[in-house]
Amino acid sequence: MARDHLQFVTGRLAQHALGEIVPPLARDRNFDFSIDVLPITVAALMTPDWIARHIQRIAGVNRVLVPGYCQGDLAPIATATGANVERGPRDLRELPAFFGRVPPPTNYGDYSIEIIAEINHCPRRTLADIRATARQLATDGADAIDLGCEPGGPWRGIAEAVRALRDDGHRVSVDSTDSREIGPATRAGAELVLSVNSSNRDAAPDWGCEVVVIPDEPHTLAGLDDSINTLAAHGVRLRIDPVLEPIGFGFAQSLHRYLLVRERYPDAEIMMGIGNLTELTDADSAPINTLLLGFSQELGIRSVLTTQVINWARSSVRECDLARRLVHYAHQHRVLPKHVEPRLILLRDPAPCEPSPDDLDRLATEIKDSNYRIFTAQGETHLVSHHLHLHDADPFLLFDRLRQTGPQGSPPKNLNPAHAFYLGYELCKAATAIALGKQYQQDEPLTWGYLTQPKQHNERLQHHNKPET
């Protein structure tokens, strides 16, 4: 079988770095290559039509790799070269990872855990607010909306709220132990009641819906078996919640109780209320949700109840939706839940790529224009331009040094207010990336997993870093 011959398309500034990266990569991945340096300084500004006019047609090439920033239809390049054309990574230092990537799972995205999202303090909210919140929760991945009631009821508006949510297309549960609330709610269409124990189980047969049964005493599971037997005798559908406890209040033992209940009731439906950890722990909620969903997946817990009250847990439903797909895939295919769901990696990036200071020194000698390129390397921010390479861990000191690079220590001519604002913004991003161990790329947003806010690249780059062509 013939070896692939790849044509790497780049600009003048990246020529040297690409020449260092590609040869060992070609030996390792067993392909031939050609590097085609087009007459442009910044490769990121290439367009497919422009490339098609300037690219070489090289005999034997069957794959053309253009920079990842090259947006638009690649057909003109394919016509010009007679080869298959694909986008590479946006940073050429990511080429080894690009060629070593694992194909995305073809059947990724299935799940077996239901998300019930609670709207807390419903009696204090307007109906319009409840409906708007429910719509957002459903958009984020909730399968059912739980109306959280309060002690001291009953809430007289519960039936109206249930009917409104049902009319909006939501499945509805009600979180109350007060039969004066539960009865109207179930008659209005609520399909699940949280929670039932010896205090209200005798009324459950009249509700005509599924219930979540809890122990009278969570620490000992006291009363749980009696409630299950009573409900089962009356044909009431149920799922069991042994009650997850906060850290410091029996967390480990509460996990053990879920194991005991699964052993005792191997075929029962089980629910876990995970808010006792996400809402009551000083830690970001995404990894906690992922761990609890992983525990649930392995134990056959097929529903979780989550809340979004405290600020650090305000996106728990979205996190649970991503996590349930990740843990389902890992469990079903017996693979590690790693390099599968990058949207759950929020704070730090998997493997930031940085240039070496020597590469940046060389870049300063090759650049012909006075625009500024910003990089991060070895814990510092680096600012590179024509015969200029400044670096410092403190962006304020770095900017002060830049202000003194003009004639007789004056500010450089191109450091007008608009450009200074732009550089300040980019230096702030770079400092954040260094502090958190994230990948910094000039004119690109930092990645925050599923929270990343995409921004347009080329317009800003063209405005601030116009290349020589």
How would you concisely characterize the structure shown here?
The protein is an alpha/beta fold and 469 residues long. It is 37% helix and 16% strand. It is built from 16 helices and 15 strands.
pLDDT < 50 stretches: 461-469
Query: Which descriptor suits the 3D outline?
Result: elongated
Tally of alpha and pi helices? 16
CATH architecture title of the largest domain:
Alpha-Beta Barrel
Q: Report the portion of residues in β strands.
A: 15-25%
What can be said about the biggest beta sheet? 8 strands, parallel, barrel
- Rg result: 29 Å
How many domain regions? 3
- Estimated helix fraction: 25-40%
Topology:
Blueprint lengths: L4 E6 L4 H15 L2 E6 L10 H7 L8 E4 L8 H7 L2 E4 L7 H5 L14 E6 L7 H14 L3 E5 L9 H10 L3 E5 L3 H9 L4 E5 L13 E4 L10 H10 L4 E3 L10 H14 L4 E5 L1 H4 L6 H15 L3 E4 L9 H18 L23 H10 L6 E5 L2 E6 L2 E5 L2 H8 L14 H20 L21 H7 L5
Parallel strand pairs: 1-2, 1-3, 3-4, 5-6, 5-12, 6-7, 7-8, 8-9, 9-10, 10-11, 11-12
Antiparallel strand pairs: 13-14, 14-15
Helix pairs in contact: 2-3, 5-6, 6-7, 11-12
Structure description:
With 469 residues, the protein is of the alpha/beta class. The protein has three domains: 5-99, Rossmann fold; 114-338, Dihydropteroate synthase-like (TIM Barrel), CATH 3.20.20; 357-464, no CATH class. Helices cover 37% and strands 16% of the residues. The chain contains 16 helices and 15 strands. It has helices at 15-29, 48-54, 75-81, 95-99, 127-140, 158-167, 179-187, 224-233, 251-264, 275-278, 285-299, 316-333, 357-366, 395-402, 417-436, 458-464; strands spanning 5-10, 32-37, 63-66, 84-87, 114-119, 144-148, 171-175, 192-196, 210-213, 238-240, 269-273, 303-306, 373-377, 380-385, 388-392. The strands form three sheets. Strands 5-6-7-8-9-10-11-12 form an eight-stranded parallel barrel, surrounded by six helices. The chain has a four-stranded parallel β-sheet with strand order 2-1-3-4, sandwiched between helices. A three-stranded antiparallel β-sheet has the order 13-14-15, with helices on both faces. A hairpin with a 2-residue loop joins β14 (380-385) and β15 (388-392).
